[in-house]
Amino acid sequence: MEEFPGGYIAGELKDSKGKTVPGSSRVTTYSTTSHVAFASRKRFLRGWIAGEALLPLVDLDVQLASGAESRVRGFADLTVGAGLQWAPKRLGTASSSSVQWSTWECPSGNIAIHARVNLSNHFVVVDPYYAFTYERRKVEWSARLHYLWNSTNNDPFVGFGVKNIPSGQAFHLNYATSYETVQEREARIQRVLVGSS
Fold first, then answer.
1. Tens digits of per-residue pLDDT, 142-153?
2. Is the C-alpha dihedral spanning 39, 40, 44, 47 positive or negative?
3. Bridge partners for 9 per DSSP
4. How many other β-carbons are positioned within 10 Å of the β-carbon of residue 99?
5. Rounded CA gap, 57 and 55, in Å?
6. For the stretch 104-117, what's the b/e string if a residue is b when 16 or more beta carbons lie within 10 angstroms of its beta carbon?
7. Which backbone phi and psi does 9 adopt, to 5 degrees?
8. How many of the other CB atoms lie within 10 Å of CB of 27?
């Protein structure tokens, strides 16, 4: 179990062209997200079954230069996930490890179609991904490939003047690479020696 508290304050807002909106505007957000994760000893397709759930509690206050003010407090959308974690495999002088995971964001947060700000996206999000890491000597390369699907919001804010908002789909990836320096290798060897003494 983990708890992730956070806060954010913005003293000015930008318009769609990136210019500062004149007047005194302010957005203040305080939140804490509860994260529960587990990894079982059960295996499926040779991988360990795991799961997680995240639930944010949010206090959001928006004050616009026009004098409009909106404040909402409560739980935001629940995110649940499940997947498989495989043990690292040796590939000659290299090794690799991988994870297959899917998350679902449920529109469970506080929603009011007449409010300017809400704590819910008010649509379902499905985000399966496959992540892997490849290591060979001093070089490591990791990547995560995502497919993101969003349902349609059939009850958007009435001020938009539309009956629904289709959010669409996307394929995206994250990647990183690293190279082990002499200092990192010496520190790792030292940790091994201290741990074995």
1. 999 999 999 998
2. positive
3. 28
4. 17
5. 7
6. ebebebebeeeeee
7. -135, 130
8. 17
